[in-house]
Amino acid sequence: MTVADLWTIMPLLLIACGSVLVLLLGAVVPGRYLTGVAVATCLGAALWALQVPAVAALPQLGVALTPLARLFTVVFALAASVTLLLSHDFNERRGIRGEEYPATILFALFGMSVLAAASTLLTLFLGLEALTFAFYILVAMDKGSDRGAEAGLKYLLLGAISAAFIAFGIALIYAATGTLEIVPAMAGAARGIAGVPLALAGWGLILAGAAFKMSLVPAHLWTPDVYQGGPPPVVAFLSTGSKGAAVLFLITLLRPAGLIPALHGPLWWLALLSMTVGNLAALRQQSIKRLLAYSSIAQMGYVTLALLTGSREGYGAAAFYVVLYTAMNLVAFGAVASLSGRDDLETIEEYRGLGYGRPFTAGVLALALFALAGIPPTGGFMGKFFIFAAALRGGEPLLAVLGILTAVVSVYFYLRVVVNLYLHSVTAEITANRPTSVEIVPLVVASLVIMLLGIYPGPLMAIIEAALF
C-alpha cells in the first residue's frame, strides 16, 4: 500500500481511528466532551472526502473513492454529526453515559462509508453488516428500558436472518460468475441469468435481505417495534443512515447492468405493498414513533419505485430522495428526542398544544411532517415529484398513479399530528422538555436543508447525476 492509497482512504481511517480514540479517552478521562471528539471526527471525514479527488479502485483494499462514494460519505458523516448532537443532552436526561455510545455511532458510520466505497461484493457485505451490527447495540443502549431491550433482540434476530440471505446470495452469484468484483459480477449475472439458475437465485436472496434492511413489505414487521423501543436519536440515525446505506447497496448492484427483467416483478410488488401497507397502517397509529415507522416503510416504497425504472433518472431520483429523507427524519425524530424528558412523549395526544408551549421544537416537527407528506415548498414535494416523474418516463404509469394516491392518503396522518400541535388546547400541564442550544443547532441546519432542497433542488440533483454516471 502506497502513501497515495492511504491519502485516498483517509476518510475511512479518520472514522476508524476516531472510534478507537473515543473508546480510549473514555477509559482514561471520561467526560461529556467525547461527543465533541466524535463530532469533530465526523466533520473531518466529511471535509476530507470533499477535497480528495475521485480515484480508481484500490484492488488490494476492495474500495474505490468514486464521486458517489464521496457524496454519500459526506451525507452519512453529517447525519452522524447531527445524531451525536441530538444525543448529547438526551443521553444525560436518560442516564446513558460512557464512551460506548459515541464510539458505536462512529463504528456505524465506518460501515456506511465502507459500503459507499465498496468495489467488491465482499467489501459491500462487510460494510453493510458492520453498520447493522452497530445498530444492534445502539437500539438496546438504554439499559433501563425493557422496551429497548426487546427491540434490540428483535432487530438482532431478524437482522441475522437478513445477513444470511445476503451472504448466501453473494455466494451464489460468485459461483455463477467466478468473480467478486461488483461490475463484472453483476454484469455477468445479468447476462447469464437465463441459462444459469444460480445467478437468479442469488439475486433473489440478495433482494430478500435488502427488503429487510429497507423495511419493505413483507419484511417490515420489525420496524414499528424497533422504532418505538429504541432511543429517538438512535432511531433518527437508524431510519436515515441505515436506510440510505441499504438504498445505496441496491443502486450499486443494479447500476452495472441495469434492471434485470426477472427482478421487475418482485420490485414492483415490493414497491406497491410498501406504499400501500405503510400509509394505510399509519392511519390507525396512536404512537408518534410507530406512525413514523410506518411512514418510513411507505417512503422506502417510493424509493423502490424509482429503482424499478432501472434508468439514470430513476437512480438519481432515489439518491436525491435518500439525501432529503435523511434531513426529514433527522428533524422529525430529533424533535421527538428534544421534547422527551426522562420518558418519551409516546402518544399523539401528548403533543396537544405544544405548538404554543414549545414553539421552536413543535415548529421544526411540523416542518418535517409537511415535508414527509410532500407539501410544497418543502423538499418532500420535489423528492416525490422526481420519483413519480422518473416512474412515468420509465414505463411505470400504473404504479406511479397508485403511489400518488397513497401519498395523498398520507397527508391525513401527518396533518393529524400538526393539528394536535396547533389546533387543540393543552389539556394538562406541559411536561415536554425545552430545547437546549446543542439541540437547536442541528435541528435548524437540517430544517434549512429541507427548505433549500424544496426551493432550489437543481445543484444537488446535478451533483448526483454527475456522480452516478
UniProtKB/TrEMBL annotation:
Reaction(s) catalysed (UniProt annotation): a quinone + NADH + 5 H(+)(in) = a quinol + NAD(+) + 4 H(+)(out)
Subcellular location: Cell membrane; Endomembrane system; Membrane
Residue stretches making up the NADH:quinone oxidoreductase/Mrp antiporter transmembrane domain: 118-409
InterPro entries: NADH-Q_OxRdtase_suN/2, ND/Mrp_TM
Domain of life: Bacteria
Entry EC number(s): 7.1.1.-
Keyword Transferase on entry: no
Keyword terms: Cell membrane, Membrane, NAD, Quinone, Translocase, Transmembrane, Transmembrane helix, Transport, Ubiquinone
Alphabetized Pfam families for the sequence: Proton_antipo_M
Membrane topology value: Multi-pass membrane protein
Membrane-crossing residue ranges in chain numbering: 6-26, 33-56, 68-88, 100-118, 153-176, 188-212, 233-254, 266-284, 315-339, 360-378, 398-419, 440-464
EC class name: translocase
Signal peptide location: none
Purpose: NDH-1 shuttles electrons from NADH, via FMN and iron-sulfur (Fe-S) centers, to quinones in the respiratory chain. The immediate electron acceptor for the enzyme in this species is believed to be ubiquinone. Couples the redox reaction to proton translocation (for every two electrons transferred, four hydrogen ions are translocated across the cytoplasmic membrane), and thus conserves the redox energy in a proton gradient.
Family as reported in the entry's similarity comment: Belongs to the complex I subunit 2 family.
Subunit and partners: NDH-1 is composed of 14 different subunits. Subunits NuoA, H, J, K, L, M, N constitute the membrane sector of the complex.
The protein, known as: NADH-quinone oxidoreductase subunit N
Organism name: Geomobilimonas luticola
